UniProtKB/TrEMBL annotation, chain A:
Record-linked InterPro entries: BPD_transp_1_N (IPR045621), MetI-like (IPR000515), MetI-like_sf (IPR035906)
Transmembrane region(s): 9-27, 100-121, 133-152, 172-191, 226-248, 278-298
Record-given protein name: Peptide ABC transporter permease
Organism, as annotated: Cytobacillus solani
Topology within the bilayer: Multi-pass membrane protein
Domain ABC transmembrane type-1: 94-295
This protein's record includes keyword Nucleotide-binding: no
GO cellular component terms, A-Z: plasma membrane
Cell location: Cell membrane
Protein origin, superkingdom: Bacteria
Automatic annotation (TrEMBL), chain B:
Source domain of life: Bacteria
Record keywords: ATP-binding, Cell membrane, Membrane, Nucleotide-binding, Transport
Transferase among keywords: no
Protein name per its UniProtKB record: Peptide ABC transporter ATP-binding protein
Record's bilayer topology term: Peripheral membrane protein
Amino acid sequence: MTAYIVKRLIAMLVTLWLIITLTFFLMHSVPGSPFNEERATNETVQKNLEKYYHLDEPLIVQYGLYLKSVITFDFGPSIKKSSQTVNEMLGRGFPVSFELGLVTLIVAVISGITLGIIAALRHNGILDYTAMTIAVLGISIPNFVMATLLIQQVAVNWGILPVATWVSPKHMILPTLALATGPMAIIARLTRSSMLEVLTQDYIRTAKAKGLSPVKIIFKHALRNALLPVVTVLGSLAASILTGTFVIEKIFAIPGMGKYFVESINQRDYPVIMGTTVFYSAILIMMLFLVDIAYGILDPRIKLHKKEGS
Amino acid sequence: MEKVLEVKNLHVSFKTYGGEVKAVRGVTFDLYKGETLAIVGESGCGKSVSAQSIMRLIPNPPGKIKHGSILFKGMDLTAVKEPQMRNIRGADISMIFQDPMTALNPTISIGEQIIEGVLQHKQVTRQEAKKTALEMLDLVGIPNPVERLKHYPHQFSGGMRQRIVIAMALVCQPEVLIADEPTTALDVTIQAQILDLFKEIQSKTGVSIILITHDLGVVAQVADRVVVMYAGKIVEAGSRREIFYNPQHPYTKGLLNSVPRLDIEETELVPIGGSPPDLFSPPTGCPFTARCAYAMEVCDRKYPFKTRLSQEHHVDCWLQDERAIKMLASIK
């Protein structure tokens, strides 16, 4: 197990390095600079600014400097908001984004799996069709449309929930719903199809032949096997939730990381772009790693450690 | 001898888009205490469906028991409610399926899979259930059971898995064990071991076994009585000796001719030509007519009466009719 984790950690670092390198060169290949604005700046001022942020150095030197800053976890000050460092921005935005993402993931997983099981058990029944209609709607409606609809109906027309911001648990409901519908729908469909497949397996018939109750058969024998494919997509779903937060945070005026991320790209705020990208990538890679570990726990056939000789 | 199970005039159908498939059409047989009854026939003849009907494991819909009764301990299993049926499954009647590679849940340790059956039916603690499971694994010949209990199905070979499946089926000491092609997925040497295991267990526990197979070699090794099924009907039944040495139905004869034998000079196997009838609309006459070398006009029109040849031996064939016997004699 330890050997496996060490191996994975090394692979994760390499992946992260590749992402950093790619982002860095892509970012610099885009024309323009942080100081390109409609209002022309004084040439000497611009030169000095570029010197201050090392933008006058050759690209490869900048890259070296950047790698150094990543290793020391000091992403430096923002170019646009010079009073703030990237670390401060991440420190302020991340807890909020994390809260939103985590709640969304939990809601999506629980409701998606429940819907999927119900649909599978009532295969071709009314409940199945209802659940799958909800799922298709959930997949087809983009989260920003969902968000606007929810705000319009629930917050404005009915006035039950607040329109925006991130103050109390009550404020969390709408953004979470808007963000969770898509992933929930994907999980529901996946759970349904894999549950249907598992229910036709021989070992389910064996369990029935043992005289087990339907509840035991479903939760003990079927669900665990049916969830294996669901766990597999959790990693990439986490990614889609993360990127989904950019838009949702913007719509609901939530002070998360998404705001910094989008703004930094528009303004070519190099340190912030790099900081947020690296941070997001690290989280994603971590998620995928956790999914693999979870997979090994769920399915005894998958061994994460060396063969013990079976 | 004491009857354990009586199946009377069982009809089972499946509803499909193409219509109703009449898979079992009036099957009647008894099972006595401590015997092994083999049900033989080719694929699709209704032998598995009959067996699964006894356990009420036919998926419904589309499957349905249309007529008939299955008497077990004075209860009609076709009529009992589902919760009561659950108390019978695994406790009084157990089943072993064909493929041991898929019959065990891959994500649950085999110990747990055996123990849960005990806990379901017996008022015992987990520790006691575990002890029973260990004894059972020992009985079916799993070496080092204490250690093996924690292992998962993929850590066992096919033969070992079938032993585990057998242990699982027998752990509550059922009176009837239905084995649906238990050796088909195993290679021949393992087959022999498993069949020996059946005999050993039967002599120790007195369980009655219904063995479903298409392999007459297996039948010859373990069966006391044999039921031959064709197109959803029992065409011939009798003791093992009667079926092997004095087969009467042309289908039974055909089956025996298509088995490789070492004790006869003639080495060429004779297959039965043609294929079984469509069970969407089974023929009104004898279903074997189209493939039968002795077919007469009457065979196509009317299903033959049951002719009883001895206490156990009976056959459904027009060749048993006096007139046919006379005619055959005159030709010779």
